[in-house]
């Protein structure tokens, strides 16, 4: 049975965000701004339904989805694109595949103790963020 990810998580660290954003064709000014942000995550996990809220001082981004059900994700606030997104479990990891203009786009979340890990990919770039559970 997969873990329940419900909780509020504070930003701890990130690696390779600038190159990841460059792979998404984000302009240099926005890349520099995003690299300065320290987002929090709020996850509500109820059965096969999840809401993942990424909270920043600039803007929030909300993903509301059912596990295993493909939906059109509007990523226009992020990089101006839409894609077909499916989120599913692979063992204890929540895995998202985003089909669209960019190859190998997606992410995965997993827990190690009270730390939430996020590995985001686009093209050949990988960005890793770590968050600490606070409630």
UniProtKB/TrEMBL annotation:
Family annotation (SUPFAM superfamilies): Lipocalins
GO molecular function: lipid binding
Highest taxon of source: Eukaryota
InterPro entries assigned: Calycin (IPR012674), Fatty_acid-bd (IPR000463), ILBP (IPR031259)
PANTHER family the UniProt entry points to: FATTY ACID BINDING PROTEIN (PTHR11955)
Quaternary organization: Monomer.
Family per similarity comment: Belongs to the calycin superfamily. Fatty-acid binding protein (FABP) family.
Protein name: RET5 protein
Lineage: Eukaryota, Metazoa, Chordata, Craniata, Vertebrata
